[in-house]
Amino acid sequence: MLPISLDTVRLFLHVLAATVWVGGQLTLAGLVPALRRLSPDAPRVVARQFSAIAWCAYGVLIATGIWNVAAVHATLRGRYRTTLLVKIAIVALSGVSAAVHGASRSPRGRALWGSLTALSALAALFVGVVLHG
Questions:
Q1: Is 87 in contact with 126 (CB distance < 8 Å)?
Q2: pLDDT single digits (tens) 29-63
Protein backbone atom coordinates (compact mmCIF):
# COMPACT_ATOMS: atom_id res chain seq x y z
CA MET A 1 0.00 0.00 0.00
CA LEU A 2 1.21 3.51 -0.76
CA PRO A 3 2.05 5.64 2.28
CA ILE A 4 -0.55 8.00 3.69
CA SER A 5 0.79 11.46 4.45
CA LEU A 6 -0.61 14.65 5.90
CA ASP A 7 -0.83 15.91 2.31
CA THR A 8 -3.10 12.96 1.50
CA VAL A 9 -5.36 13.78 4.45
CA ARG A 10 -5.46 17.46 3.48
CA LEU A 11 -6.43 16.67 -0.11
CA PHE A 12 -8.97 14.04 1.01
CA LEU A 13 -10.72 16.51 3.33
CA HIS A 14 -10.78 19.14 0.58
CA VAL A 15 -12.22 16.74 -2.00
CA LEU A 16 -14.74 15.36 0.52
CA ALA A 17 -15.99 18.85 1.34
CA ALA A 18 -16.19 19.72 -2.38
CA THR A 19 -18.20 16.56 -2.93
CA VAL A 20 -20.74 17.66 -0.34
CA TRP A 21 -20.84 21.33 -1.46
CA VAL A 22 -21.02 20.72 -5.22
CA GLY A 23 -22.58 17.26 -5.39
CA GLY A 24 -25.16 18.09 -2.76
CA GLN A 25 -26.33 21.13 -4.71
CA LEU A 26 -26.69 19.10 -7.90
CA THR A 27 -28.52 16.32 -6.06
CA LEU A 28 -30.86 18.76 -4.33
CA ALA A 29 -31.62 20.51 -7.63
CA GLY A 30 -32.54 17.14 -9.13
CA LEU A 31 -34.82 16.33 -6.19
CA VAL A 32 -36.77 19.61 -6.15
CA PRO A 33 -39.44 18.54 -8.68
CA ALA A 34 -40.19 15.34 -6.73
CA LEU A 35 -40.16 17.23 -3.44
CA ARG A 36 -42.68 19.74 -4.81
CA ARG A 37 -45.02 16.86 -5.67
CA LEU A 38 -44.81 15.65 -2.06
CA SER A 39 -45.57 19.04 -0.56
CA PRO A 40 -45.14 22.70 -1.50
CA ASP A 41 -43.02 23.14 1.66
CA ALA A 42 -40.86 20.04 1.16
CA PRO A 43 -38.14 21.72 -0.98
CA ARG A 44 -37.70 24.46 1.62
CA VAL A 45 -37.51 21.98 4.52
CA VAL A 46 -35.02 19.73 2.72
CA ALA A 47 -32.96 22.73 1.55
CA ARG A 48 -32.74 24.05 5.11
CA GLN A 49 -31.49 20.69 6.35
CA PHE A 50 -28.98 20.44 3.49
CA SER A 51 -27.84 24.00 4.19
CA ALA A 52 -26.58 23.03 7.64
CA ILE A 53 -24.42 20.30 6.10
CA ALA A 54 -23.40 22.37 3.07
CA TRP A 55 -22.17 25.37 5.07
CA CYS A 56 -20.03 23.07 7.23
CA ALA A 57 -18.55 21.65 4.01
CA TYR A 58 -17.95 25.18 2.69
CA GLY A 59 -16.09 26.00 5.90
CA VAL A 60 -13.95 22.89 5.51
CA LEU A 61 -13.28 23.91 1.89
CA ILE A 62 -12.08 27.34 3.01
CA ALA A 63 -9.91 25.88 5.80
CA THR A 64 -8.38 23.16 3.64
CA GLY A 65 -8.00 25.62 0.77
CA ILE A 66 -5.89 27.86 3.01
CA TRP A 67 -4.00 24.75 4.13
CA ASN A 68 -3.44 23.81 0.47
CA VAL A 69 -2.05 27.26 -0.33
CA ALA A 70 0.23 27.14 2.71
CA ALA A 71 1.50 23.71 1.62
CA VAL A 72 2.45 24.92 -1.88
CA HIS A 73 3.50 28.48 -1.05
CA ALA A 74 6.74 28.11 -3.00
CA THR A 75 4.81 27.83 -6.29
CA LEU A 76 2.65 30.94 -5.86
CA ARG A 77 4.03 32.69 -8.92
CA GLY A 78 3.04 33.33 -12.48
CA ARG A 79 0.13 31.46 -14.02
CA TYR A 80 -0.37 29.27 -10.93
CA ARG A 81 -0.92 32.40 -8.82
CA THR A 82 -3.30 33.88 -11.41
CA THR A 83 -5.28 30.63 -11.55
CA LEU A 84 -5.39 30.49 -7.75
CA LEU A 85 -6.73 34.05 -7.56
CA VAL A 86 -9.41 33.18 -10.12
CA LYS A 87 -10.39 30.15 -8.00
CA ILE A 88 -10.57 32.24 -4.84
CA ALA A 89 -12.87 34.71 -6.60
CA ILE A 90 -15.11 31.91 -7.88
CA VAL A 91 -15.24 30.27 -4.43
CA ALA A 92 -16.24 33.61 -2.92
CA LEU A 93 -18.93 34.03 -5.59
CA SER A 94 -20.24 30.55 -4.81
CA GLY A 95 -20.51 31.33 -1.10
CA VAL A 96 -22.04 34.78 -1.56
CA SER A 97 -24.56 33.56 -4.13
CA ALA A 98 -25.50 30.64 -1.83
CA ALA A 99 -26.10 33.07 1.03
CA VAL A 100 -28.24 35.34 -1.18
CA HIS A 101 -30.09 32.27 -2.49
CA GLY A 102 -30.88 31.22 1.07
CA ALA A 103 -32.18 34.70 1.92
CA SER A 104 -34.16 35.11 -1.29
CA ARG A 105 -37.94 35.30 -0.88
CA SER A 106 -39.09 35.05 -4.49
CA PRO A 107 -39.09 31.89 -6.59
CA ARG A 108 -37.33 33.79 -9.37
CA GLY A 109 -34.62 35.02 -6.98
CA ARG A 110 -34.10 31.53 -5.57
CA ALA A 111 -33.81 30.12 -9.08
CA LEU A 112 -31.37 32.81 -10.22
CA TRP A 113 -29.13 32.71 -7.16
CA GLY A 114 -29.33 28.93 -6.88
CA SER A 115 -28.22 28.59 -10.49
CA LEU A 116 -25.34 31.01 -9.95
CA THR A 117 -24.33 29.09 -6.82
CA ALA A 118 -24.27 25.77 -8.66
CA LEU A 119 -22.45 27.14 -11.71
CA SER A 120 -19.81 28.88 -9.62
CA ALA A 121 -19.36 25.77 -7.45
CA LEU A 122 -18.79 23.69 -10.59
CA ALA A 123 -16.39 26.31 -11.93
CA ALA A 124 -14.45 26.31 -8.64
CA LEU A 125 -14.24 22.52 -8.79
CA PHE A 126 -12.94 22.65 -12.36
CA VAL A 127 -10.34 25.32 -11.56
CA GLY A 128 -9.29 23.28 -8.52
CA VAL A 129 -8.58 20.32 -10.78
CA VAL A 130 -6.57 22.65 -13.06
CA LEU A 131 -4.55 23.82 -10.04
CA HIS A 132 -3.83 20.31 -8.87
CA GLY A 133 -2.56 19.35 -12.31
A1: no
A2: 999 999 999 999 999 999 999 999 999 999 999 99
Taking CA 2 as the corner, what is the angle to CA 11 and CA 14, rounded to the nearest 5 degrees?
5
In this predicted model, what pLDDT tens digit does every residue of 80-92 receive, in sequence order? Answer: 999 999 999 999 9
Query: How many angstroms separate the first and last alpha carbons of the chain?
Result: 23
CA–CA separation, 115 and 76 (whole Å) = 31
- Give the contacts of 61 (CB within 8 A, at least 6 positions apart): 14, 17, 18, 21, 91
Q: What is the pTM of this model?
A: 0.92
Residue 98 near residue 117, CB atoms below 8 Å: yes
Report residue 43: phi and psi, to 5°.
-60, -40
What integer pLDDT is reported at residue 22 of this predicted model? 97
